[in-house]
Specification:
Blueprint lengths: L2 E5 L12 H7 L4 E3 L8 H10 L3 E6 L19 H18 L3 E3 L11 H19 L5 E4 L15 H11 L4 E6 H7 L3 H8 L3 E6 L15 H11 L4 E4 L12 H9 L5
Parallel strand pairs: 1-2, 1-8, 2-3, 3-4, 4-5, 5-6, 6-7, 7-8
Helix pairs in contact: 2-3, 3-4, 7-8
C-alpha cells in the first residue's frame, strides 16, 4: 500500500505552519511535504519532524520572488548564479531534515531569450544541482505543471520532462509526477505511469478538476494506488490538494482506502 505524505502548504492551513506537523501525525500521516521551509529555521523544522515521528518527503528549492509571481529560475539565462545560490540556501534544510528529494522549479518561460538558450540553461543548472546533491544521496526533481493553473510554465508534459532527464544524464535527477497536473494536460494516467515509471521519483495527487480530496472527480485513485503497488513504487504519495473544509474532516478517503487494503485476519 502506498505511503502518503501530507502537503503542509495546502493542508491544515487552519493552523500555524509549525503546528501542522503534529496535526498530520495525529491523523496518521508518517511523512510531510510542502513548498518552502525558508521562513523557519532548519532546526525548528527538524525538531517538529523528530517530535512527531515524521519523514520529510519533499520540499522545493527557493523559486525567486514568489510574491512577484516568479515560479523558479532554472530555465532563465543569466540567472545561473542565482539558481546556484538558491540551491545553497536549501542545503541546511536538506541536511537538518534528512530530506532525500528536492524540487527545482523550472520557471515561467522568459520573453528575453530564445528556446535554445532556455534549454541549455535548464540542462546546465540541473546538472550542477544534481552533482551537488549526489554525495548526499538526494534526488533532484523536476515537475510538469499544467498550463491552466500556471500559464507559461516551462515544463508541462511528461515526455518533455523525461527527455530532459535523458539529456542531463544524472542518475539522481527524477520526475515529480503530479497526477493532477498530468490528468489535466494529458490523461491516460495508467499508461503514462507504466511508460515513465523508471524515471519517476515522487508522486502527488489531487482530484480533477477542482484539486480537492482525491475521492471525487474524474480520476480513479484507488486503481492508481494499486497500480503503484504493482509497479513496486516505494516512495511517498504527496497529498497536494486543497481540502473542501477542515483537513482532518476530509480524510475519510484515506481511512477507507487503508481499511480496504488491510489483509483479513
Amino acid at each position: 500500500m502506498p505511503r502518503f505524505a501530507a502537503n503542509l502548504t495546502m493542508m491544515y492551513t487552519e493552523l500555524p505552519f509549525l503546528d501542522r506537523f503534529a496535526a498530520a501525525a495525529r491523523d496518521g500521516f508518517d511523512a510531510v511535504e510542502y513548498l518552502f521551509p525558508y521562513e523557519h529555521a532548519p532546526a525548528d523544522i527538524a525538531a517538529r519532524l523528530k517530535d512527531n515521528g515524521l519523514t520529510q518527503a519533499l520540499f522545493n528549492l527557493p523559486p525567486g520572488d514568489w510574491a512577484a509571481s516568479e515560479r523558479g529560475m532554472a530555465c532563465h539565462p543569466g540567472r545561473e548564479a542565482e539558481f546556484a545560490a538558491a540551491l545553497e540556501q536549501a542545503m541546511p534544510y536538506i541536511e537538518a531534515t534528512g530530506c532525500q528529494r528536492v524540487h527545482a522549479m523550472a520557471g515561467l518561460i522568459p520573453a528575453s531569450s530564445d528556446a535554445t538558450a532556455q534549454r541549455a540553461t535548464y540542462v546546465t543548472n540541473l546538472r550542477h544541482a544534481a552533482a551537488r546533491l549526489a554525495p548526499l544521496s538526494v534526488s533532484l526533481l523536476i515537475e510538469p505543471i499544467n498550463s491552466r493553473d500556471m500559464p507559461g510554465y516551462y515544463l508541462s508534459l511528461q515526455q518533455q520532462a523525461h527527455d530532459v532527464l535523458a539529456e542531463v544524464g544524472a542518475p539522481n535527477l527524477k520526475v515529480q509526477m503530479d497526477l493532477y497536473h498530468c490528468q489535466i494536460m494529458e490523461g491516460d494516467l495508467s499508461k503514462r505511469l507504466q511508460k515513465h515509471f523508471a524515471g519517476v521519483g515522487h508522486i502527488q495527487i489531487a482530484s480533477v478538476p477542482d484539486r480537492h480530496e482525491p475521492d471525487s472527480g474524474e480520476v480513479n485513485y484507488p486503481h492508481l494506488f494499486d497500480l503503484l503497488d504493482a509497479l513496486g513504487y516505494d516512495g511517498f504519495v504527496g497529498c497536494e490538494y486543497r481540502p473542501k473544509a477542515g483537513t482532518s474532516e476530509g480524510l475519510r478517503w484515506l481511512h477507507l482506502y487503508k481499511a480496504s487494503r488491510k489483509a483479513p485476519a
